[in-house]
Amino acid sequence: MFSKLPISSKTEKILTKSLDEAITVEEANHLMNIKGTDLYPLLATADYLRHEIAGDDVTFINNCNINFTNICTVRCGFCAFGKDAGDPEAYILNDEQILTKAQGAVEKGAHEFCLMGGVLPDADIEYYEHLLRLLKGEYPNVMIHGFSPTMINDACTVSGIDIAEGCERLCDAGLDTLPGTAAEILTDRSREIICPEKVNVQEWIDIVKIAHEVGIPGSATIMYGHVETLKERVEHIDIIRRLQEETHGFTEFIPMTFMHEYSPIFLEGQSNLGASGIEDLKLYAVSRLMLRDLIPNIQVSWVKMGFRFAHVALTAGTNDLGGTLGGDELSEASGAPDGVEASIETLEGMVRDLGRNPVERNSKYTEFYPINKGIEMPTL
């Protein structure tokens, strides 16, 4: 496959092996550091494996983010969204406001509500159960992708129950899938710098494992481009891989580049923030080579990358474009390059321009919906 390409012998050996089996942590670390003419063979290999594992379908979901509050007691160094309760810009949506936003999304064909917010100081399991039953009572057929391990952990503490009971109650109330948020970067060294008040690595693993065991699958994410090293990026993916080997509860893996412009750590003077475009592509490609069909769906977040770069990333091993979002106050506060809402037509056009097949899906990748033909590529 690589005989006529200018490529180093070590990279060629690793990529040849990757065609048949997952690469090791050591091999992934080598690929994270390659430059020059080794780069294209890496991307081509990841794209080849994407085709072999996921085919030529590119999936996405018609969904709506419902960020029910921006009040947060956990003030992370990377977050430009959270506010103190007394801040004039702080808010908590009431039931009517939540249902109004949900109704607007359903009228546009939404299959998922992404229910997220800050960590409220007194939020207990009963409060989260209320939000779930509120939405499921009106829209029983729309899946809810909601909360985070940190939110669940704190709510269980407030309610005086263990994590297993908390997850079971959320599942019974209508929680379908768990977002990968609060993972950030799964090394305690970096977490101590950017999110010391969140759950630590082992706590995150334990909560996600319990959620999977009680029947709540969900996303796995990585947020990169802040204080972590390239080696820590690989360590994070390997933790996700080993957890998936045990639970098989992850539906997708989502690399999320750190948008630093409005973050507290940037405003406080932290330098060298943000990943380069080449680093982005290498992370997508290496993720595919490490995860293969163990997590067959690798998502590129157009809201983090912008439409143009997300389009390019579909050639680096990814097969999913995320969702239409219907607004995303978290990303908007961080400076989303192309806004926080996409139309089905925009996502479809991006996919067809690559000669691939746009497919609308649900949260669990268990149901798929037909897409109209004949959409032209929009101007990005």
Account of the protein in words:
By secondary structure, the protein is α/β, with parallel strands linked by helices. The protein has a single domain, classed as TIM Barrel (Alpha-Beta Barrel). Helix content is 44%, strand content 12%. It is built from 16 helices and nine strands. It has helices at residues 9-18, 25-32, 39-54, 95-107, 125-138, 149-159, 163-173, 188-194, 201-213, 230-247, 264-267, 277-291, 302-305, 307-313, 329-334, 344-353, and strands spanning 57-61, 63-67, 112-116, 143-146, 218-224, 250-257, 320-323, 357-361, 368-369. The protein has a four-stranded mixed β-sheet. It has a three-stranded parallel β-sheet with strand order 2-3-4, covered by helices on one side. Helix 2 (25-32) runs antiparallel to helix 10 (230-247) and helix 6 packs across helix 7 (163-173). The two termini are 34 Å apart.
List keywords for this structure.
4-stranded mixed sheet; TIM Barrel; globular; 12% strand; alpha/beta; single chain; 380 residues; 3-stranded parallel sheet
Number of helices: 16
Structurally, how many domains make up the residues?
1
Strand content: 5-15%
**Proportion in helices:** 40-55%
Quick description:
The chain has 380 residues and is α/β, with parallel strands linked by helices.
